Structure of Methyltransferase domain-containing protein:
Amino acid sequence: MSETATTRTDWGCVLFVDLRNFTNLLEFYGPSRIESVLDELFVDFQRTVDSYGGAVDKLVGDGMLAVFRDDRRQDCEANAVRAASEMLYRRLPELERRTKLNLEIGIGLSTGELHRATIADIDETIISRNVNISSRLQSLCKKFDVSVLTDEGTRENIEQLPEGYRFRLIPDQRIEGIYERIDVFEICSLDDYDEEYIDQFNAAAKRYKEGEYSRALEFFVSSYSQIDRKADRVLLHHFASECFDQLDSADSLFQNADRYDENSTTQRTQADFLFWRLEQYVDRRDLVPAQVLDIGCGSGALTKTLPDLFPEARIVGIDESADQIRKARQDHTHPKVDYEVADISDWDAERSFDIVMSNSTMHWVQRQDDAYQNIRSAMNPGGILAVHQGAKGCYKELHEAARRAYEKLGFEEYFRDFQFPLVYYEKDEMAEVLERNDFDVLKIDVMESEQPDTLVDDFAEATLLSYKQRLSNEAEKYAFTEQYREFAREYDDIDTTRIYAFATRSER
């Protein structure tokens, strides 16, 4: 420090608030109008800072730096948060009503030692890494489309937020000028998010921080697909992409031992992964699909959602069950969706498709090569194939429970030549099937899906039908099913390994 600089050290919380899109506002409304708006804005904000025991340090263009000091190190953070909340939820809306402008701000809060220095006997200012952090945090607000971010020091020193607010963890962020990555926290209003959602988000963010990327990914992708979470999609998209990137870099097996929310279903969760991954490949290839085929559409519940994902496309859903197609046409109609009864192994498509997808169906197809040749013939050059199905080992404990059940009941004779109809692959086997049928593999993900509470019963109502068809009467089927359930519930952990395969039509 030079002879012309003097310093004194305090403890406090730095608040940096910035008006977003200032350049655009200036360009559109002109300097005079925006100067008047800034004057009103910062006069109101200064009053807010003063009312909570803070002091404005300086104005920086379209931003303001304020400091809340506290020698006891326990009140300054709470006062800064109260000031930030008043700026955002009271002062800013009042100014918008007066000026008839749509205004947005970002606020960053950071706590630590503050060195007040007088430089060259000219200017007194704050020198602190927390000034830099608070400035970077308000910039980060724009990236994540949020309004208030704090660092961990601020979070730890606040015993309780004002009523109606919650912290939300955004872990492992790189802040320019700071060597280590830091955790940051959004201050959320419960007017914008319910508490259950914030709890679930924080749990997923903690898993991400701990490197449990596949477990975190389930929440981020599932929430991203929900229509009522559209306001939060920027942050959800960021973390889902980060999880995918981490898993891609490790080329690893997804693992998940936890259960999903009781209201979620296996099929919906698995479809979320398929749709998410497919969306990434469509975006990367600048593909605007005009025709989309859904193989094994069932009752059409998922097929009906595809126009939301591909608004320019015409959708065709096929299923070999006439009953399912009848139900789809009855319950899940959409002006852009057509349903047809068809077996993909024999189907002669009347049109060609930019995207062909199948969720939990291809493992039921016995004539695999015929099916994939038909799929390739139905695809346009540059089109994308997206398939989700069971992987080798999937539900092996439940199949073991079925075997034990028919052996205990003395039904072995029925199953002497039994060959289970599902076709499960290892990752390399899946790639080989695609390549020999003239597809170029983009990516094959292997993951372990969630294990819902209803899994044992779901298996009994669907997959177990292949076993029950071997039995001779309803009494035997009932006894077999109940014995299966008894054995199946002995297994705490059930293998739910799935394969997600993405490929393009080879033009070689």
